[in-house]
Records
---
Amino acid sequence: MSIETRTKKAGKTYAFTEDHEKGKLAQFWFQHPPEGLTLFLVLYTQACRWSKCLGCNLPSKMSEHHVPFSDIMMQIDYLFNNVLDEPEQKNLKKIILSNNGSVLDEATFSTTALMYFIAKMNMHCPALKVLSIETRVEYIDLAELEVLSRALQEKNPPTQLEIAVGFEAFDETIRNEHFNKGLTIEEFEAMAAMLASYRYHLKVYFMMKPVPQMTEEAAIHDIEKAIQYLDKISEKHGIPINMHLNPTYVASGTPLAAAFEKGDYSPPLLQNVIRAVLAGQNKRISIYVGLNDEGLAVPGGSFLRPGDETMVQQLEKFNQTQDYRLLT
Ligand code: SF4
């Protein structure tokens, strides 16, 4: 089934981005987590082949059609020649590599381009401690992890690999029947065991209140349970886990936007996001709260409301320090 057909079947009405200027990046921005200067990099490729997740319009920034490895390599050259100046290249501590889908899906993100990216990164970013690669769980395979492991070990000092996967909602029914994530606990745990054998780190994306069926209290409870669960997985496999918690915004062209327009959905309140995060105290995992809607929310559909400025500052500081006293 084509990406377009899957998108339509999922009730989404957005168009893909076909007029992208060749060789330019899809998006990038800097973050300031505890690890130090971080680049969030989105390369322009073919869109996510899953495309079914209820509130997601990330694929709309990508092409419906295949983007050849030479075009992706041009973007990588552009990044190192035109975007990052020399001090930034030297100071970067972490890169999060994304294509708004799955970097490890070789059908949409060429392996040649991925290896080219790692070669450039090894040469230009000597202080880089962590490379985070976003992907769906089913595209992670042992052969790929082995090659990535070897390439990252060749830099001196080596770069740590973090695999970043979407889990979105802890509740199985919400996750798979309402949100259409297509991820079982068994698949997630098999992946965690695989990463543990390489001592890779794991980042897990959750969304707070991702579907109309959830109340604010249910949304808080879901994140609290997710934190407890990730804490246990971290202990069981001995791997560092970061929960990346995104308060849900109403993404245009999705069934969530249709529910919002009918008055059946509102994004979570930031004070409740803070209540949920507090469950992370004295746990093994770290938590990063995403405060960027990437310009993809419909008008009025953001989780940021007038008067939230102080809470945003508290959360930004918390992201950098993991100091829970800032949130109480
Ligand atoms: S959340 Fe990820 S896997 Fe789901 S449709 Fe969006 S990009 Fe694809």
---
Amino acid sequence: MSHAVSAHSAGLVSCHDCSLVSRMATVSPGSVAHCPRCAAPLHSRKPDSMARTWALLIAAAILYVPANLLPVSTVIWLGQGSPDTILSGVKAFFADGDALVAILLFVASVFVPLLKLLVLTWLALSVNRRWMWRPRDRTRSYRLVSIIGRWSMLDIFVISLLVALVDLDAIATIEAGAGAVCFGAVVILTMFAAESFDARLMWDVVEEDR
Ligand SMILES: [Zn+2]
């Protein structure tokens, strides 16, 4: 691998907002630098990246438990209803022969959120533990999680679709449960965690060790 010069090691910093590259040396230490073009504060790395990422990941991991254990919806069918968790919903769709809906619900609501949490935790650990292992593949994993992050609203979409489907039937009503609130929080916290993580930190570790 050829030795790459990062903007940070060359004393350059690019603006997060307008992408203008400035020289970091012109800024006196201790003061906050501002972009000469758009006046946004300049950071060569996202500020407090690891602390923020960990805080958001831990909060998301804690809420993942009630999101799966508490009822996300209560379908009231002719005045009678029992609360449904995500997994009991998956089971019910399977039992009804709607395997496709069951699989979609499981992948979007259980598997993908867990996968995002695990990958981000692994990437954050790799920076804290100063791993040298395959930074390129880890950067690819981060990019993948960010792309999935944009599709995170798929989970919310599935729930609203279910609500719409059930509401078509005049004799049934559906109420969102506490699990749905936790679930929404997991999706949003994970998205913020992915946004706070700075993939360049993985490369800083590799470059410093040279
Ligand atoms: Zn700027």
---
Amino acid sequence: MTLENLALIREIAASVDDPELPHVTIGDLGMVRSVEHEDGRIRVTLTPTYIGCPATEEILADVRSALAAADIDADVEMVMSPAWTTDWITEAGRAKLRAAGIAPPAPAGDQPTVMLDLPVACPRCSSRRTRRISDFGATACKAPYVCDACREPFESFKAL
Ligand SMILES: [Zn+2]
């Protein structure tokens, strides 16, 4: 295996779609941590997004089958440390989230240390006149909002 092949393996792993976010790949979310040789094996490590996101097993299975389809025999594992942060979402990933009507999270560095509920910009009209409808989203990762300017409901990623 050459370095070039490792880059190809990373590319295949990164192109797997996130099961919960249509058109957004796990590469867009910054989940692919490393692709390396270890004791004659290829080891791919991924970092799950939000703890408690039920999609973790599905993502592992999807990456394994994408690699198997390319005839690549690799160990695919989740690593929990360092923990994933929304800062790892790529610019392309943020653009795709907006296009899918999901407000991308503000960079975690911009978050106040005291958790203030800053208004989230509406992904459709960019208005900040939005409010959270409830604390419980469809998944552990997203919170439901409604925009008072265009009256559209949308989901926002919780910044981590
Ligand atoms: Zn709006």
---
Amino acid sequence: MSERPVNVGVVGMNYWGPNLARNFDRLEGCRLAWVCDRDEAVLDRHRAAYPGSTFTTDLDDLLRDDDLDAVVVATPVPTHAPLARRVLEAGKDAFVEKPLALTGEDANALAALADAGGRVLMVDHLLVYHPAVAKVKELVDEGRLGQVFYLYGNRQNLGIVRPDENALWSLGPHDISVMLHLVGERPSEVSATGESYLQPGVEDVVFGRIRFPSGVIGHLHLSWLDPHKMRKMTVIGSERMVVFDDMETERKVTVYDKGPIPRTETYGEYIQVRSGDIHIPKIPAAEPLRIVCERFVRAVRDRQPTPSDGPAGATVVEVLEAMSRSLADSGRPVALEAGGAIA
Ligand SMILES: NC(=O)c1ccc[n+]([C@@H]2O[C@H](COP(=O)([O-])OP(=O)(O)OC[C@H]3O[C@@H](n4cnc5c(N)ncnc54)[C@H](O)[C@@H]3O)[C@@H](O)[C@H]2O)c1
């Protein structure tokens, strides 16, 4: 294996990009070679922090650099697909902020482009890399919850109100990516309802529903108009129930040994429930964004697959797009075509 560091450039340095730049800059085996934003004033805010990096307002400077391995796209959502396409076509690996694109068609085209060129394409579905989600995934995959019946996500707060993106597109990628990751199936049907109270045509609150072929149901409550700050995912199984609460510091994951008792042969007997121990597994206190960046650098260096690759990112976009159609049609269920990218 070469000792040469992986050279990374970050494009888009206003609000979120600096978090990515900081992590890539600090990672062993990685060099933040380029920092790019088309706004010179935005660049000026970061020059002192990265004296070893080259600053530019032009993405083409990065794409022309033969020593640059990968580009991180942290620009506004409508620019993700066109910029990621330029990066992949220049023969670079790409890390793209969520969501991967605005349409399933564009997202699947990017996944296909990366595949055809043997390039890494990874989407920043941050929570998929969260140690607490890894624990919940382990419990699901090992059958510790029994049969998974349904799961639901709460992502509510007062703000940040985005003018150009509704609560579904802004907050939904997090919960949808986690649900697809946990269930491991391509959804068959979705629906969504929502309301726009603050800005016409921009939903502040969205209730979404995902049906998976196995019968598992996922439910989402997404809102930036809510008194509670909630970042929670609950999974209900036939034998145990588990809650991932990202607002907690010491009990991110709680496993409830609760569930229904299978019905006995006796006719007419009520189904009884069982309420057992509550268990709090220890979760490593690692910054999820750091893990994401580490995984990307490893993928670039060792060509290792990641759980938020092009196909996974494209499925999330397909779900968002189908939910948007449902939202515009009073919650009518929208079927997702079989095939396409697999979550
Ligand atoms: N994973 C997360 O939890 C998380 C959180 C917040 C934001 N995000 C994502 O991060 C991305 C950026 O969000 P933000 O709030 O920082 O956006 P922003 O609009 O505040 O900043 C985007 C920056 O990109 C620059 N830019 C736009 N087009 C460019 C181009 N062609 N070349 C170079 N620079 C260009 C702009 O000048 C601006 O400085 C979005 O995709 C958003 O969804 C992710």
